[in-house]
Amino acid sequence: MESIHKIPINEAFSENCGCPICRLYERYDQNAIRFLFEEGVMNPETRIETNKYGFCAKHADALLKVGQSLSVALMLETRLQKLQGLLHEKQSLKGAIKEIEEAEHNCYICNRLDKSMSEIAEFISVMYDTEEGFKDKFLNQEYFCLPHAKLLLENCKLKGGKQKEYLQDILKKNLAFTMRTRRSLKNYAESFDYKAKRGAGEVDKNASQYAIDYLTGKR
Ligand SMILES: [Zn+2]
Ligand SMILES: [Zn+2]
Q1: Rounded to two decimals, what is the model's pTM?
Q2: How far is the CA of 189 from the centre of ligand 1 (A)?
Q3: Who surrounds ion ligand 2 at CB < 5 A?
Q4: 133-141: long-range contacts (C-beta < 8 A, 24 or more apart)?
Q5: Relative to the alpha carbon of 23, which ligand is closest?
Q6: How far is the CA of 143 from the centre of ligand 1 (A)?
Q7: Is the distance from CB of 114 to CB of 84 less than 8 angstroms?
Q8: Gap between the Cα atoms of 63 and 23, Å rounded
Q9: Using one digit for the tens of pLDDT, what is the confidence trace for 173-183?
Q10: Distance between CA 43 and CA 134 in Å, rounded?
Q11: Which of 50, 99, 102, 169 is the most buried (most CB within 10 A)?
């Protein structure tokens, strides 16, 4: 089984600091934004989708930061044109709420990324069994952030009878990280207590940031 995701997956799993799926997400996120400016703006099929789905707050901000203001304005103008057709005066209350909800909760880039991330998670579950040396890299990761642990577990149907082993490997890794991070947070909190013995535990000032990265991931 071959996949366009194989090289990026191998590269993300060659590092072992933080969540490897977050590293993949960031790479695909940047690629999706680059694609949009390099090809998407002038591509009628992409424009049908950007008109239909628009952008979430995070991605709208990212588009503005890239600084191609003409492309952004062109995409937003036709997105509003599409919305104008949906928000007509004679609509019912329910219909209007539904249209606004769809406009609020959709994003062309998020939709694209969701699809890629599911494919990636599925291919990782296959590589774990079939790619030489990959399982070692997998087991060598620091953790899988909670949203991405869920993504991996939701997309491992191709593993058949080996699903349980996969689940246990992921949970074991995350349990160890959870315990380590709790200890770091406790040591940090105790360092504020003037009665605490000095040197009782090593204090890591970034403990809260690590805990948040693990709990929320990059999405
Ligand atoms: Zn992650
Ligand atoms: Zn988005």
Answers
A1: 0.89
A2: 26
A3: 56, 59, 107, 109-110
A4: 134/10, 134/13, 137/10, 137/13, 137/14, 137/16, 138/13, 138/169, 139/169, 139/173, 140/16, 141/13, 141/16, 141/19, 141/20, 141/173
A5: 1
A6: 8
A7: no
A8: 20
A9: 999 999 999 99
A10: 37
A11: 50
